Amino acid sequence: MASSLVIHQRRGEYSVEIAIGSEQFSAVVDTGFTNPGCHTGLCVDAALFDRLRPGLLNPRAASAYDITGTLHRLRSGTTTARIVGLDDSAVETRVKDGGSNVVGVCFLTKLVGYRLEWSFSDRTRRIRRA
User: Fold this and answer.
1) Whole-model pTM?
2) pLDDT tens-digit profile, the chain (130 residues)
3) Number of Cβ atoms within 10 Å of the Cβ of 25
4) Residue 122 gets which letter from DSSP?
5) How is residue 44 annotated by DSSP?
6) Range of 94's domain?
7) How many domains does the structure of the chain reveal?
8) What CATH number does the domain containing 19 carry?
9) How many other β-carbons are positioned within 10 Å of the β-carbon of residue 57?
10) Which of 1, 90, 98, 106 has CB atoms 3.0–4.6 Å from 82's, for a disulfide?
11) Burial code of 74-90, b = ≥16 C-beta within 10 A, e = fewer?
């Protein structure tokens, strides 16, 4: 584990490895994925959500808007997730069955003591202890 993690751009996207219990998966960092109250930090595809579902707390249907502004009701639950390879990155967050694996602003804001740096010239992002 480390107090800093460099995220490189691949195919036009920045992604990190996320761990929830014994499940580990790649999630695209999506700075447009946020929500009022900042409770939901992750969306995952349906197959992964089904595997996570037995361990999720507070299951409920949650509202979400897509890029067109259309409202959807998605399955969701609360869990503890962490960024693989980054010290003290475990946060409690709501996970939604949103069709693809993304980590959003509301997850990143819970990384107390860390900051996100973005190098446009190097096309890298770094999460580092403040």
Assistant:
1) 0.91
2) 699 999 988 888 999 999 999 999 999 999 888 888 888 999 999 999 999 999 999 999 998 887 788 888 999 999 999 999 999 999 999 999 988 999 999 999 999 999 999 898 988 999 999 8
3) 19
4) T
5) E
6) 4-129
7) 1
8) 2.40.70.10
9) 10
10) 90
11) bbbbebebbbeebeebe
Contact 75, 94 (CB under 8 A): no
Tell me if 33 sits within 8 A of 102, measured CB to CB.
Answer: yes
Cα 34 from chain centroid (whole Å): 10
Distance CA 26, CA 35 (A): 21
- Which pair of tokens denotes residue 75? 């399955």
Pairwise CA distance, residues 80 & 20, whole Å: 6
Contact between residue 73 and residue 59 where contact means Cβ atoms under 8 Å apart: no
| Residue 16: how many other CB atoms lie within 10 Å | 21
